[in-house]
Design goal:
- This protein is of the alpha+beta class and about 475 residues long.
- The chain folds into two domains: about 1-195, Serine Threonine Protein Phosphatase 5, Tetratricopeptide repeat (Alpha Horseshoe); about 195-480, no CATH class.
- The chain has helices at about 1-15, 20-25, 30-35, 40-50, 55-70, 75-85, 90-100, 105-120, 125-135, 140-155, 160-170, 180-195, 195-215, 225-235, 255-260, 295-300, 320-330, 330-335, 365-385, 390-400, 460-470; strands at about 220-225, 240-245, 265-270, 270-275, 280-290, 310-315, 345-350, 350, 360, 405, 415-420, 425-430, 435-440, 450-455, 475-480.
- The strands form three sheets. Strands 1, 2, 5, 6, 7, 11, 12, 13, 14 and 15 form a ten-stranded mixed β-sheet that branches.
- A hairpin with a 2-residue loop joins strand 3 (about 265-270) and strand 4.
- Helix 9 packs antiparallel against helix 10.
Length: about 475
């Protein structure tokens, strides 16, 4: 019997290494598990359920494991992870506590895991106590330093200690460019900036401007080519957005910087001038959801291979799309940043007439007045800024520069997704010159409310049929524009 169980462990391990979770579940049937009564086999199947996001089944299998072996710490730890996934933090703490109280070589790891749950519960002092205890047990446990620094940063306490923890993490980390290291460097930078009152004032105004421009409309629409739509819907590719340096309009951001009177950082050496390369956020261009059949949009953006009105308009459920993007981020990414810290948001574009100083938001005169006041205030702060963090200043300004355009574009009523992009892997389209930098967000298939085919699309009914039957159920509305386009 023991030999048979060992063989099952070996088979399950090989399957797990190949990511074949269904095969593990089929191998470890209820009959097999009840025959062997091996806690480890329940653990293996439970973890397979966890990987498939079947958390209740994972918890049930781990419960059977510790019924068979009450001293099996891994059963409690895995169960705790499943409760975390279900956002039942009290039960997660209960199970992690049981794992911690058992004799185990992994007590330090369980303490960090419980500390992370305390953090989610906003019980920061308890979280820090657990990280401190973990570091006493294992002084080289890098994620304990990182998590402790993150809690101090989130709670805005002992920022000097927070910086030291992030620096300790970077010193000990084996991968200096993973997501944790990127965030550690980012948080150190932000902590260093705090004594610069003028810069923090600028950051606060930028944040207020974002709040005014932030939209919560139910629907947004994106104009693109049929080729892109085919890739997104029929081939199930992820939605891409490009880095701001690759916008089609070379004047992007100029309106904003011209208003501020701000020039990019330049250097002089041996009578030669140099400009530092300015990295920019990643930008996605949309319009209001009700503009799915607009003549100007078909002319400028709904193209196929440069031919006007032969493209399409994709109307998305905005919040569901954002939720999908956030859910798609790995646990590693979510644990690397402050809880709920995300810049994945959609914003109105504000417009400015040449030679004037009043900004216009199509949706609200009241917000337009408030925005004008804030941007005017920002202008004075930028003019007066003489601190050392010039690069950080430009990063703050670039984070909103693409939310301002000339008044001549106001009929577009544009909406934009602006993403810092630190959480995403940078990809490159090397088939174009210069190579185009982009990030992939998430599939839009389940979030499409409507597909509108352009008024000059050839074989529109055939295209519509292909998109409609791509969905087994809950297909989006398929519309064909009948605008008299010439």
């Amino acid at each position: 019997m023991k030999k048979d169980a060992n063989n099952l462990h070996k088979k399950a391990e090989k399957l797990f290494n190949k990511g074949k979770y269904d095969d593990i579940i089929n191998l470890l049937t209820i009959k097999v598990l009840e025959t062997h009564k091996d806690a480890g086999l329940y653990i293996r199947r439970g973890f397979s359920w966890y990987c498939k996001k079947e958390y209740d089944k994972a918890i049930a299998d781990n419960k059977k494991a510790f019924e068979i072996n009450p001293s099996y710490d891994l059963a409690f730890s895995n169960s705790g992870a499943a409760w975390v996934a279900k956002k039942d933090y009290d039960k997660a703490i209960e199970d992690y506590s049981k794992a911690i109280n058992l004799e185990s070589d992994y007590k330090d790891i369980y303490l960090v895991a419980r500390g992370n749950v305390w953090k989610k519960n906003k019980e920061y002092s308890k979280a820090i106590d657990d990280y401190n205890e973990a570091i006493k047990i294992n002084s080289v446990l890098t994620n304990a330093y990182y998590s402790r620094g993150l809690v101090k940063r989130e709670e805005n306490i002992d920022l000097k200690g927070s910086k030291q923890d992030f620096e300790e993490y970077l010193q000990r980390a084996t991968d200096k460019n993973d997501i944790w290291a990127k965030y550690a460097k980012y948080y150190i930078e932000k902590i260093d900036e705090l004594p610069d009152k003028k810069l923090t004032d600028i950051a606060e105004i930028v944040s207020k401007i974002k709040d005014i421009l932030h939209i919560e409309d139910e629907f947004i629409t994106h104009y693109t080519s049929l080729s892109v739509l085919k890739s997104l819907i029929l081939d199930s590719t992820k939605f891409r957005i490009s880095e701001g340096n690759f916008m089609n309009d070379p004047s992007e951001g100029i309106v904003f910087f011209d208003f501020l009177g701000h020039k990019l950082i330049t250097f002089c050496k041996d009578e030669h001038k140099f400009k530092k390369f300015p990295p920019k956020p990643f930008i996605g261009s949309f319009v209001n959801g009700n503009m799915f059949n607009d003549l100007n949009m078909w002319r400028f953006y709904g193209k196929e291979k440069g031919e006007e009105a032969k493209g399409c308009a994709i109307t998305l459920r905005r919040q569901e799309f954002i939720d999908d993007i956030n859910l798609s981020l790995s646990d590693e990414v979510k644990e690397a940043r402050i809880d709920n810290e995300t810049d994945i948001k959609f914003y109105h574009i504000a417009y400015l007439k040449d030679g004037e100083s009043n900004f216009y938001i199509p949706s609200s005169e009241e917000k337009s007045c408030e925005l004008t006041k804030l941007v005017t205030e920002l202008k004075q702060f930028v003019i007066d800024y003489n601190g050392v963090y010039k690069t950080s200043l430009e990063e703050y300004l670039n984070s909103i520069a693409f939310l301002f355009k000339s008044d001549s574009y106001k009929n577009e009523n544009e909406v934009r997704l602006v993403v810092r992009g630190i959480e995403f892997k940078k990809e490159y389209n090397i088939d174009v010159i210069p190579p185009r930098v982009f990030i992939e967000l998430e599939s839009i298939i389940k979030r499409v409310e409507q597909i509108t085919l352009g008024p000059k699309v050839d074989n529109a009914n055939e295209w519509g049929s292909a998109f409609y039957y791509r969905y087994e159920e809950n297909a989006p509305k398929i519309m064909i524009s009948l605008l008299p386009y010439k």
